[in-house]
Amino acid sequence: MAWEEAFLLFLQDIRTEFLNPIMRFFSFLGNSGWLWIVICILLLIYKPTRPIGIIATVTLLVSAGICNGLLKQIVNRTRPYDAIEELRLIAKKPHDSSFPSGHSNASFAVACAITWCLTKKRKWVGVILIVIAALIAFSRLYVGAHYPTDVIAGVLLGMMCSIVTYLILRRKVLGWS
Questions:
Q1: What's the angle, vertex CA 141, arms to CA 136 and CA 143, rounded to 5?
Q2: CB distance 162 to 108 below 8 Å
Q3: Distance (Å, whole) CA 35 – CA 139
Q4: What span, in angstroms and rounded, lies between the C-alpha atoms of 141 and 12?
Q5: pLDDT, position 176
Q6: Is the bond into 51 cis (omega within 30 degrees of 0)?
Q7: Using CB atoms within 10 A of its CB, is residue 45 exposed (0-12), middle (13-18) or buried (19+)?
Q8: 8 Å CB contact between 78 and 97
Q9: 88-122: pLDDT as tens digits
Q10: How far apart are CA 37 and CA 174, in angstroms?
Q11: What is the pLDDT of residue 13?
Q12: 153 pLDDT more than 60
């Protein structure tokens, strides 16, 4: 779509030497979902947070399966840096297809799953996680790795998987009604 190409080229035009390493760092944080995997493992290790860890881990597995195992294979969208001649990728070159964004999907899946489980007193942790997830998602646009609709789809898929998983598991895992 023309608007997506225009948006990515706009982002490329406003890249700066200050922002480039910051956006590459946030993009790196989402590589292979390792940040979110580490967070899930840490939650699983500590007994009081284990129920949250279970919900976050199941959410991550379900959303990654749908995103990377199913949708990326079906849609098989070309990456924008391969399709838009003027666009320059400034991060590690991904080797899978573009739609939906796995970084955005995993980030919002885990950040939202944890946030749903937090008490009102601890919601500030969820805000921090969602801000990190949003920065990771935006970084994928900034570095030229994804189209805006890839990122939007990844975010929405991650959020939907987190809501469904939370609603299914909250009674059994958290003991909530």
A1: 85
A2: yes
A3: 15
A4: 9
A5: 61
A6: no
A7: exposed
A8: yes
A9: 999 989 989 999 999 999 999 999 999 999 989 99
A10: 20
A11: 94
A12: yes
Distance CA 140, CA 137 (A): 5
Residue 138, CB half-sphere, CA atoms under 13 Å: how many?
12
The mean pLDDT of 3-17, rounded to a whole number, is 95
Residue 11's nearest CA partner among 88, 99, 94 is 88
Helix axis angle, 50-64 to 148-169, nearest 10° = 140
**If pLDDT is split at 50, 70 and 90, which confidence band does 142 have?**
very high
Q: Identify the DSSP state of 170.
A: I
How far is it, in rounded angstroms, from Cα 86 to Cα 80? Answer: 10
CA–CA separation, 116 and 12 (whole Å): 35
Mean pLDDT of 149-154: 97
